[in-house]
Amino acid sequence: MRRTSASLLAGTLVAALAWASGPSTPAVALDPSPGVADLTQDLNQILGDSRLTIARAGVVVKSAANGEQLYATDAGKLLTPASNTKLFTSAAAVETLGLDYRFPTTVLNAGRKVGSVLTGDLVLRGTGDPTMLAEDYDALAAKVAAAGVKVVTGKLIADDTWFDGQRLGTDWAWDDETAYYAAPISALTASPDRDYDAGSVIVSVAAEGGQVKVTTTPETDYLKIVNKATVGAETDVLIERQHSTRTVVITGTVADPYQEWVAVDDPTAYVSSLFRKALAAHGVRVLGATTTGAAPAGASELARHDSMPLGELLVPFLKLSNNMHAEILTKAMGRKATGQGTWSAGLKVATDFAKANGVQVINMRDGSGLSRRDGFSPDSIVQLLTSVRTKPWFSTWYEALPIAGNSDRFTGGTLRSRMRNTPAANNVHAKTGSLTGVTSLSGYVTSAEGEPLVFSIMLNQYLSGSPKDIEDKIAIRLAQFSRATATDVTAQLKAADQGAAGDLECSWLKPAQC
């Protein structure tokens, strides 16, 4: 049953009174239809979980068809979003940069070429491409050799000036500094594999011949490996880069192969070492030292690599919740809008985009959600999700969101192990978010009657294990929503308990463990 104007006013007044009475007041139905009243009762019961007694919970559900609010509790409260921040970053990036945007990486001749000798400097210039692999730098080196260059008399200059020199987010925790999900941001960076975790290296250990063998992906001598591990009856090993150094210390015991993704301390220096080694492998000798700085005016292009378009990059970015993609895109937005590849410039672009699309409560401190000072209200997230449905790029962005219960890693993403065998499976398209004491899930679901719904669930300040199963129960209930009739959801909600994720979303667990 649709609301009349009178019932709409009544619902609005009831909602206002419920909000004013404080966070402990259960949400009430905003529509007198049996289905909405039943939904309200069920969601109130789900949110009555004892794990949330001392926590904060904000939930908003609206019809995407007409904007009608179906459920709300603490809709306007500022809460920590974790990786739900990426909804804002990704949407603003597509709007600002376009789906066809590519990151170019170029090699420049900053001297004079005579025969096979380049008299002067060779410049490697980046613009932040997070998808560059060691093989891509090797291909650039091969192009330099193919251009006839055998000797460079000057320096190898690494030009990372497309972005500023601030490598880490202002509010990021110091003890995350060596973690791949908080790697330093640079306009010159490299990823170890096609998850594209920019600025990191995979360090692998295995027991061979009574000793622990250590390898890296890609092969690199940039890191200093200190191997103190021994072969043992079980694998209980710690692989950790020492703070603010290139030294990786390995301790513990190894029985079975194990690997860890480790952030490098300086992506520009790391890339320079990869590229210099690749040049040598292709017969190009650089006589001078490796330095950093801007390419001289008038330097000519010798080789170029363009990234995949942003429309394709959205898949590993959003499906796997890649923090570095978010931060690189933030600086890229700033560079395009103001000529400044900085967090402040990029965050202003993202914030202005959000406000232009009706978002009221927003505090963006980074692009990924690593900062605990990021803040959004559930209503603001729903407003963004509703507004972008009219954008010409929406379908591409929507399909890049994780899809519940789909086991394919680049389809289901961080939701691939959740809500399986329920009405929410292959239905819910939503962004996850995880920090200690924080979990969120916001996105889209189609009801049992085919009505498109938009929702945001934000749970903060709990002290228990992760209550992600509460998010799943709500999403499953929304997939079963019918305006006309009450719904028996007991069996399906039990499935949420069976498929609930652990404390961290899958993207934080390398290799894939959920």
From TrEMBL:
Belongs to the peptidase S13 family. It comes from Nonomuraea spiralis. The gene is dacB. The keyword Ribonucleoprotein does not apply. It is an enzyme of class 3 (hydrolase). Its EC number is 3.4.16.4. Pfam families: Peptidase_S13. This is D-alanyl-D-alanine carboxypeptidase/D-alanyl-D-alanine-endopeptidase. The lineage of its organism: Bacteria, Bacillati, Actinomycetota, Actinomycetes, Streptosporangiales. GO terms for molecular function: serine-type D-Ala-D-Ala carboxypeptidase activity. Keywords: Carboxypeptidase, Hydrolase, Protease, Signal. Residues 1-29 form the signal peptide. InterPro entries: Beta-lactam/transpept-like, Peptidase_S13. The keyword Metal-binding does not apply.
